[in-house]
Specification:
28% of the residues lie in helices and 19% in strands. It has 355 residues and is of the alpha+beta class. The protein has a single domain, classed as Sandwich (Jelly Rolls), CATH 2.60.120.330. The model has no long low-confidence stretch (mean pLDDT 92). The structure holds N-oxalylglycine and nickel (II) ion.
Length: 355
């Protein structure tokens, strides 16, 4: 099989490195206008306690006595929110701590050393940005390192940081742990949706996975820029790790932006467009964004679990037995091309695929 996945998907126009830009400016007036976004503070942000994000206990999903109850809870979390915090996920602390420490070290390296792992022309894999498709669009206040981690033969190891020395090993280990958590969640979701486990396991065969490591520098005009514009994830299931204790993820619910307050040790899990489409809209791919802080930097690792590139993505036959399909079907390759060809705007893409 040819190497997938971020090649041939289009490219991101080269724009300044945000970490270096942030380090070079002292005054709010120095923030270039391309980063200033009126929408950043347009919609109300829900105050604390307005609504509680569901919490799913992974160890209970696996426990013969509690699994039925916890699976039902997971189903409701996917129907009502599409977002949940996952506790007791069983990923060893050591794997997470090594990953976090190496990410912190990587972003501390001088720009030239980080650029040794920069995106190559016509590829979105490596250190750089995504979704910069025109010279006059607004820009996000973030740098990212995007790497394919699975299937193993798809890895482009030359783009995996060689500094710090343990980075590659830490990422391999973290990737394997998360693959196993994602695999179990997908299995339970298939069951909850009334789909034969083989259907999901064929679509997610070999458990394709990529990581997007996001780095958000502080900004003197924090409330007027966005780390990541409002979007949905073009994948099946995302598991997000917070590298430090700084918050910044917000999800859109009922017209408000709802700030996610990660529980200690939890992963933030969310449904992407692909599961929304496969489930014929029973599970929702919720709109979310990342905001920026005035003084503190922030980093996250989004582990993205998607389908095989050649699989056909459309509402599953078993789900649309008694009702009409609500989405068009297309190959995942085609979907990804469309996904990366425009700057994301909330749920616009997934809604454009609705019949
Ligand atoms: C993403 C994402 C949120 C965050 O990478 O797609 O939504 O808080 N990240 O970094
Ligand atoms: Ni996202």
């Amino acid at each position: 099989m040819a190497k997938p996945s971020f090649q041939c998907l289009g490219t991101s126009i080269d724009v300044p490195n945000v970490q270096a830009l942030a380090a070079s400016i002292a005054n709010p007036a120095d923030v270039p206008p391309r980063y200033v976004r009126p929408e950043a503070k347009a919609d109300p942000v829900a105050s604390d306690g307005d609504s509680e994000l569901p919490v799913i206990d992974f160890s209970r999903l696996l426990h013969h006595r509690f699994s039925r109850e916890e699976s039902a809870k997971l189903h409701h979390a996917c129907v009502d929110w599409g977002f949940f915090q996952l506790i007791n996920h069983g990923v060893p602390d050591q794997a997470t701590e090594k990953m976090k420490a190496d990410i912190v070290e990587f972003f501390k390296l001088p720009l030239e050393e980080k650029k040794a792992f920069a995106q190559l022309p016509n590829s979105l894999e490596g250190y750089g940005q995504a979704f910069v498709v025109s010279d006059d669009q607004k820009l996000d206040w973030a740098d990212m390192l995007t790497l394919i981690t699975r299937p193993l033969q798809s890895r482009n190891i030359d783009l995996w940081p060689a500094q710090p020395l343990t980075f590659r090993d830490s990422l391999s280990c973290y990737s394997m742990e998360l693959k196993s958590v994602a695999g179990t969640l997908l299995e339970v979701m298939a069951k909850n949706l009334g789909v034969a486990p083989e259907e999901f396991s064929t679509i997610f065969q070999d458990q394709p996975q990529g990581v997007k490591i996001n780095y958000y520098p502080p900004c003197p005009r924090a409330d007027e820029v966005l780390g990541l514009s409002s979007h949905t994830d073009g994948t099946g299931l995302t598991l997000l790790l917070h590298v430090n204790d700084v918050e910044g993820l917000q999800i859109r619910k009922g017209g408000n932006w709802f700030p996610v307050k990660p529980l200690p040790g939890a992963l933030t899990a969310y449904i992407g467009d692909i599961i929304e489409i496969l489930s014929n809209g029973v599970y929702k791919s919720l709109e979310h964004r990342a905001i920026i802080n005035l003084k503190e930097d922030r980093a996250t690792v989004a582990a993205l679990h998607g389908p095989r590139e050649d699989s056909v993505i459309g509402p599953l036959a078993e789900i649309v037995k008694g009702c009409k399909p609500k989405y068009v079907s297309m190959s995942y390759g085609e979907f990804m091309k469309t996904y990366f060809s425009t700057k994301p705007e909330g749920r616009r893409l997934v809604e454009s695929l609705m019949l």
